[in-house]
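Marked as duplicate of an earlier ticket. Keeping the data here for the record.
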Amino acid sequence: MAAGGTYHSLVVANGELWSFGDGSYGQLGHDDNANQKLPKKVEALSKHRIEMIAAGGFHSLVVADGELFTFGKGDFGQLGHGSFSHQALPKKVEAMRSKRIEDITAGDEYSLVLAGGELFSFGANDFGQLGHGDSQDSAVPKKVEWFSGKHIMLMSAGGFHSLVLADDELFSFGNSLYGELGHGDEQEQKLPKKIDRFMKKRIEMIAAGGNHSLVVADGELWSFGNGQSCKAALE
């Protein structure tokens, strides 16, 4: 199990969590801000069973023993602890205590958590990437009411936009400066909006990058968004 952030990496090996790379905000979980050029065990979670990991821009999410822990940069509330402080050691997100966590994903400065069939988001929301219909940052996990009653199957947090597969339909929201939402325009979306191009297609995988998106549908790879380094096209 591995997860790569902007400048740091998380790896689970032999049941233990290791981290390396940039540690300037405590995102490596070693109770300091030091960089690590070699993998180093996250001792604070050494007695826990690691189930899921996600690395964001400068923060980390870990599900261990059924509980959500976060650490790293927190100035937009992306750690979910009700504050905008950084955290150099894994800290349990009390708001998610006792919820059945099914998936996690970390964006540049925000986080998405699927728990009990419901989608929660927290952190930066300047482009509406939290999906609540506004631009208000949230320092605690907040349920995305728009998806209430829908069966969420896949989700991915990118730089400033989100992709969610629900009821076999793909939705996107957040920034669309480069067309990364897939709606054929550059208009940001503060609420989830269905990507019509994928209607009636069987979607198998989704991934939201910094300013682009990838989708595997009917066995084919689709890409859209910023093609500055490698041309992307929605065809």
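See parent ticket for discussion. The longest strand covers residues 8-13.
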